[in-house]
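RECORD TYPE: inverse folding
INPUT: structure tokens
STRUCTURE:
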């Protein structure tokens, strides 16, 4: 058998319940069996040909092998530049399942902030559960809070209910931050008889999902907890991209285009666009790359000075003198050192950031006033307009596959896992591995250098 060494093991129901029995999958795969003899040659016979994912199927994390550390650049993690082959579990439907559909009560919960595609994932989870034969499917309203708030009733879900929800943004179930303790959540799950929980959210939500998974195991509850990473910032380790990111970049371009037109049409116009990205500048970098209208892109991973001979303001002066206008895009987490710390936290305990866009706007006005050069600064913060969008076509497809695979993973008996895409293939990963820290833009990566080539900006240090 293909027993590749895996980088990660993922928790399975049989790890704790030796008596867990599997039954043949109730999910009907409609993959075509080989039709012609020629095609079938070298393939298994019709009876063996089923298309289900074998538990030993693996996806390779890194596909490039560099001949020297200098060509690999910052991506080289190994001084000899021979990649240690890292294989992870392939996602998809299994031939044997560990839950009888008639005994399943599945719940879906969405937490944290909004992200394009949430409804697409909810919809696909419900549709796939129904195809397995699950009758009891509910939505937990307003994030983890819905587990404890007496006034909030669980929402019965079916294909009919979710049929058109992907046509609008937001979450059918509602979202929230903060909420009950893990033991309260698990108490509530026990009371409601939930044995499959699908959790859509970011790093905080996933930390919660993993804690719920562990608590269920401690209580010896036969429960599958499966996450679908929702982070518009695209800051999840190992994954090619997360759903909503593509839509965010596309929408960000509209804001950038408006800023460009405003700046370009004004005398000495400067447009500033603040984009999402608390610790990672992927949206800002990709929006700069795709729009081609950005002169200065500022991200949290790359330190910069505003003032001084190599500062942003000096370069802006140069741009005004030579081009007549300029457009800046800045990720929300960039330059936080310049702002007064407030120690404010949101309900989930996340630090509330100061507004770097407003700060840059004020500093530009001051600096140009000091040298008596007129300047017309316009600041756009499109955050909520972007978050509330419906998913674009490419995110729609990603959400569909992630939603289906979440259900396949739960039926296969996995728990404490999350679904993702690595090297264009869909995989299951253990939750703790992907949330240990946020994925960052590598300032020495080719992509960031491509961005610098495109904007033409110098180093601001
Ligand atoms: P976003 O990317 O939108 O911030 P998030 O999932 O990180 O998404 P949070 O508001 O941080 O959003 O957390 C969502 C939920 O997860 C909240 O209900 C919060 O109470 C819970 N949570 C956050 N961190 C943890 C943790 N370490 N352990 C358990 N639960 C957590
Ligand atoms: Mg978070």
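DESIGNED SEQUENCE:
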């Amino acid at each position: 058998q293909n027993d590749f060494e895996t980088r990660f093991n993922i928790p399975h129901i049989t790890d704790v319940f030796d008596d867990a029995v599997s039954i043949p999958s109730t999910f009907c795969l409609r993959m075509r069996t080989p039709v012609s003899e020629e095609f079938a040659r070298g393939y298994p016979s019709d009876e063996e040909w089923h298309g289900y994912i074998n538990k030993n199927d693996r996806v390779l994390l890194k596909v490039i092998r560099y001949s020297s550390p200098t060509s690999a650049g910052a991506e080289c993690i190994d001084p000899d530049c021979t990649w240690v082959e890292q294989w992870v579990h392939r996602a998809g439907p299994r031939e044997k399942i560990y839950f009888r559909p008639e005994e399943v009560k599945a719940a879906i919960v969405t937490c944290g902030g909004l992200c394009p595609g949430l409804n697409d994932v909810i919809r696909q989870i419900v549709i796939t559960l129904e195809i397995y034969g699950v009758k009891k499917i509910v939505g937990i309203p307003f994030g983890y809070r819905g587990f404890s708030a007496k006034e909030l009733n669980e929402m019965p879900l079916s294909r009919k209910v979710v049929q058109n929800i992907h046509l609008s943004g937001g979450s059918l179930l509602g979202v929230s931050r903060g909420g009950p303790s893990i033991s309260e959540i698990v108490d509530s799950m026990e009371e409601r008889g939930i044995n499959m929980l699908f959790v859509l959210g970011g790093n905080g939500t996933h930390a919660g999902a993993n804690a719920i998974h562990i608590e269920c195991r401690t209580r010896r509850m036969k429960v599958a907890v499966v996450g679908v990473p929702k982070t518009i910032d695209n800051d999840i380790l190992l994954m090619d991209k997360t759903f909503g990111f593509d839509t965010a970049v596309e929408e960000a371009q509209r804001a950038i285009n408006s800023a460009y037109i405003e700046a370009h049409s004004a005398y000495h116009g400067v447009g500033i666009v603040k984009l999402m990205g608390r610790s990672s500048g992927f949206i800002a970098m990709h929006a700069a790359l795709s729009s081609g209208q950005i002169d200065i892109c500022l991200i949290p991973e790359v330190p910069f000075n505003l003032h001084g001979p190599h500062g942003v303001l000096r370069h802006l002066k140069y741009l005004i003198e030579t081009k007549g206008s300029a457009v800046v895009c800045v990720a929300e987490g960039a330059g936080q050192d310049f702002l007064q710390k407030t120690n404010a936290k949101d309900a989930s305990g996340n630090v509330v950031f100061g507004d770097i866009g407003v700060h840059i706007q004020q500093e530009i006005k001051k600096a140009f006033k000091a040298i008596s050069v007129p300047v017309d600064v316009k600041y756009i913060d499109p955050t909520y307009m972007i978050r509330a969008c419906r998913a674009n076509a490419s995110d729609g497809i990603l959400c569909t596959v992630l939603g289906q695979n979440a259900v396949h993973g739960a039926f296969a008996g996995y728990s404490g896992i999350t679904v993702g895409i690595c090297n264009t293939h869909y995989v299951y990963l253990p939750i703790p591995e992907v949330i240990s820290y946020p994925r960052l833009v590598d300032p020495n990566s080719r992509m960031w250098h491509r961005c610098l080539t495109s904007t033409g900006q110098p180093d601001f240090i």
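NOTES: The chain is about 35% helix and 15% strand.
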